């Protein structure tokens, strides 16, 4: 009886039939192989092969069963991949919402900061304009004219007349004061608007939202005088005419971006007695800003009581009110 090493191909005699089917080392190459008889030797075995005992048979079945279970469990285990995939999705979705929330918060903070910077610039400009108004009054004994002459012709804006009082005397001297704001020469100076007049939310060159409110209310005051704003269409008031008190009267307003005008144009905001803020447009931020006769800057809510706002715009109605009522 012969067997053959499946590794090196060497043939050897099988002296003990009991080792058939077992794994043994090859006498030649040393590698292990299962001892199996060559085909020619099967007929010679006869009854020489020992009968397997019942216990051997059961052991074989157990091994076979064990191998079957191992084979069944040796396939790919997908559970870790499923858990990993679910975890990835959870973190990816959660991360997306977290990033979006963070981005929204950053955007909100940037927007609030931008509005705050814009508001600070507006308030500083209004304060500086009030100082310039006082300096103008000291020299001329009245506030500057909005720009229209008594015959109704348009001249130059009050902003032009304030130029010497905001350190812009050379620019003032370039204007032809006897010509209207839109004369060929004066129009060439439109793009040279001083920084003080720039409005943070207005992008068009030469346009500003720093405006005067001019007009008259119905009726008269206790002295039978017309009730007016600090400015009429033709001229500015004298401080002694502001009988309601400098702290309770609006001088200059910062209106909404939609109401911006050329800085040299003598156009005022008309006084609307029933709803003054309707002429202001929509505020760039949460409120409008105005400066009072004493130089203090105040905010006015868009939904403030129209009657109180009207009284703040009038300078001699005999019914002074406080800015705290509209902030």
Features:
7 helices, 13% strand, two-stranded antiparallel ribbon
Can you describe what's shown?
This protein is α+β, with helices and mostly antiparallel strands and 327 residues long. The protein contains seven helices and 14 strands. The chain has helices at 42-45, 54-73, 79-140, 158-161, 169-174, 184-187, 306-313, and strands spanning 2-4, 11-13, 23-25, 32-34, 207-208, 210-211, 213-214, 216-220, 226-228, 250-254, 261-262, 269-270, 288-292, 297-300. A four-stranded antiparallel β-sheet has the order 6-10-13-14. The longest helix has 62 residues, at 79-140. It is rod-shaped and about 145 Å long.
Write the layout of secondary structure elements.
Blueprint: E1 2-4, E2 11-13, E3 23-25, E4 32-34, H1 42-45, H2 54-73, H3 79-140, H4 158-161, H5 169-174, H6 184-187, E5 207-208, E6 210-211, E7 213-214, E8 216-220, E9 226-228, E10 250-254, E11 261-262, E12 269-270, E13 288-292, E14 297-300, H7 306-313
Parallel strand pairs: 7-12
Antiparallel strand pairs: 1-2, 3-4, 5-11, 6-10, 8-9, 10-13, 13-14
């Amino acid at each position: 009886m012969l067997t053959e090493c499946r590794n090196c191909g060497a043939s050897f005699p099988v002296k003990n039939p009991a080792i058939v089917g077992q794994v043994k080392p090859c006498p030649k190459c040393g590698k292990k192989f299962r001892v199996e008889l060559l085909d020619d030797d099967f007929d010679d075995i006869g009854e020489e092969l020992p009968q397997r005992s019942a216990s051997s048979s059961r052991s074989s079945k157990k091994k076979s069963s064990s191998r079957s279970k191992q084979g069944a469990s040796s396939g790919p285990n997908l559970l870790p991949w499923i858990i990993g995939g679910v975890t990835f999705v959870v973190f990816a979705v959660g991360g997306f919402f977290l990033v979006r929330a963070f981005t929204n918060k950053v955007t909100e903070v940037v927007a609030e900061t931008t509005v705050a910077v814009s508001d600070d610039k507006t308030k500083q400009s209004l304060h500086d304009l009030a100082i310039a108004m006082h300096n103008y009054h000291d020299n001329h004994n009245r506030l500057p004219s909005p720009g229209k002459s008594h015959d109704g012709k348009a001249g130059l804006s009050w902003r032009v007349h304030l130029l010497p009082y905001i350190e812009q005397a050379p620019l003032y001297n370039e204007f032809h004061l006897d010509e209207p704001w839109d004369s060929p020469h004066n129009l060439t100076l439109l793009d040279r608007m001083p920084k003080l007049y720039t409005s943070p939310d207005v992008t068009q060159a030469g346009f500003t939202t720093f405006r005067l409110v001019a007009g008259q209310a119905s009726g008269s005051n206790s002295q039978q005088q017309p009730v007016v704003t600090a400015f009429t269409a033709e001229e500015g008031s004298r401080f002694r005419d502001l009988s309601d008190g400098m702290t309770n009267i609006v001088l200059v307003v910062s209106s909404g971006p939609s109401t911006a005008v050329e800085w040299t144009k003598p156009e005022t905001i008309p006084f609307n007695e029933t709803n003054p803020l309707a002429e202001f447009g929509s505020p760039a931020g949460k409120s409008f800003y105005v400066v009072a006769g004493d130089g203090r800057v105040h905010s006015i809510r868009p939904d403030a009581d129209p009657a109180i706002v009207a009284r703040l715009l009038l300078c001699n109605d005999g019914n002074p009110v406080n800015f705290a009522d509209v902030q």
